[in-house]
Specification:
The protein is built from 15 helices and 24 strands. Helix 14 packs across helix 15. It has 3 domains: 39 residues, no CATH class; 335 residues, Spore Coat Polysaccharide Biosynthesis Protein SpsA, Chain A, CATH 3.90.550; 60 residues, no CATH class. The protein is of the alpha/beta class.
């Protein structure tokens, strides 16, 4: 039986085909699809589809300024480090991995965090990050919660993966999983909701902006308050180089009483595929690379440098109270539309594998909360030290490029400790051996030359 109000809404919002689908299902599939449809805002879906030919509106150019290049005086840097060290000592930081994606573009269907990235160790991305948190636990004799945001497609597998590996020696009670929400995909032309099974709509994760609602709905914000944790250190699972031990970053954030702090890196070119930090009406904001007009992207200053130079490596600090305030209005975050190829069932119940873009997906982005921050800071970081994204199977931003950057960083750290690495030799440093060059110098005091592939663990 279909409730009269749902039947009316399906008719009113162009989804009458789902009424037919419901009528053809027996229990329990009928009840399952009914539950899914009851929770979907069909009016919102129809309104979003009506925007399919529109690009996200940009503010007028006169309201936009490039982000000034941030600099830090040496004395100030030392003060920031002291405050950051105090925050770590007191266990006032939690670490959040955005890990909702699958490794499809890398040639596997597992959660991306399970992808083996260690150049020698073959450790998966999850292990690299978990061991950084464990190393921080040991360095500061503190306990830092590790928050792992999954998606419906990766949640069960991710939880089981951690459990079978004994949470990589982190206290199980300090590894907190939570799941982001989903949005249905709709047909590009008609706006009709697509089905991936007779009793199941085509659903996709609602974007990294889903972090905010996920933190609220899972109760994690309350748990952080109970632990006296002030700051969430946010990063993406596919970046094995992220520096989680950056006391300067944390200290600067705390001394400024900032609501949001972000790392930025100089772009490699005008249209590099990273978000662009900039100022809108004097407030920190971001525009996606795909939305930045070519003439803006190519603007240069008198020295010939890109005006819009500041790329987004997706490394942020969020004040917990700020996020609590934002969650009260989280539904106001805008939806972003993306055209995708989405397999679906046709009217005969046959699976269709489209060869061209046939559907719209909808996502919210975490950086849309930036403009709501009254107090914010940015910190420039060298690309070679902290940004090695693993997104493509081959070529740029691939496992090969990320592993090369991991080897190069380990080689630099060894050189600083007086250790030479012979040409062509691979070296990898476990976070449990060293979190930074200073750790390496403390552990390797004898000058030597490494002549064969070596994993420091």
């Amino acid at each position: 039986m279909i409730p009269d109000d749902l039947r009316a809404r399906l008719q009113r919002h162009g989804q009458a085909h789902l009424q037919t689908a419901l009528e053809q299902l027996a229990e329990p599939e009928h009840a399952k699809l009914l539950r899914e449809l009851e929770r979907i805002d069909l009016a919102e879906l129809q309104s979003l589809h009506a925007r399919r030919t529109q690009k996200d509106a940009l503010p007028p150019r006169e309201r936009i300024e490039p982000l000034p290049y941030p600099t830090i005086e040496e004395d100030a840097g030392e003060a920031f480090i002291d405050v950051g060290e105090d925050a770590f000592d007191a266990g006032k930081v939690a670490f959040l991995i955005v890990a909702g994606g699958q490794g499809t573009r890398l040639g596997c269907n597992d959660p991306k965090g399970m992808f083996p990235i260690g150049p020698i160790s073959k450790k998966p991305l999850f292990q690299i990050h978990a061991e950084k948190v464990l190393a921080l636990n040991r360095r500061y004799i503190a306990r830092f919660p590790l928050l792992v945001m999954t998606s419906p497609a990766t949640d069960a597998t991710t939880r089981l993966f951690f459990k079978r590996r004994n949470f990589y020696r982190l206290p199980p009670q300090d590894v907190w999983f939570f799941c982001q929400g989903t949005m249905p995909a709709v047909d590009l032309e008609s706006g009709r909701m697509l089905l991936e099974a007779p009793d199941r709509p085509c659903l996709s994760p609602n974007g990294h902006g889903g972090t905010i609602i996920g933190l609220r709905d899972s109760g994690i914000l309350n748990r952080l308050d109970e632990r006296g944790i002030r700051t969430i250190y946010y990063f993406q699972v596919d970046n094995p180089l992220v520096n989680l031990a950056d006391a300067l970053f944390v200290g600067r954030h705390h001394l400024a009483n900032a609501e949001v702090s972000s790392k930025v890196l100089p772009k490699t070119g005008p249209k590099e595929k990273v978000g662009n930090f900039l100022l809108v009406d004097g407030r920190c904001s971001m525009i996606e690379y795909s939305d930045l007009p070519d003439d803006w992207a190519n603007e240069r200053d008198e020295a010939g440098q890109l005006k819009f130079w500041a790329g987004n490596p997706a490394i942020h600090l969020f004040d917990v109270e700020f996020l609590r305030k934002i969650t009260a209005e989280a539904d106001r975050l805008p939806w972003h539309l993306a055209r995708k190829k989405v397999p679906y069932l046709d009217e005969a119940g046959q699976l269709v594998q489209p060869e061209t873009e046939n559907a719209l997906k909808f996502e919210r982005f975490i950086f849309d909360i930036l403009t709501q921050a009254e107090r914010w800071t940015v910190l420039a970081t060298p690309r070679d030290d902290e940004f090695a994204p693993v997104k493509n199977k081959d070529g740029v931003d691939s496992p090969a490029t990320a592993q090369a950057m991991m080897i190069a960083q380990a080689t630099r750290w060894l050189h600083q400790a007086g250790v030479e690495v012979a040409d062509g030799v691979k070296v990898e440093i476990s976070p449990l051996f060293a979190l930074d060059a200073e750790d390496v110098m403390d552990k390797l005091r004898k000058a030597t030359t490494i002549t064969r592939d070596t994993y420091f663990k």
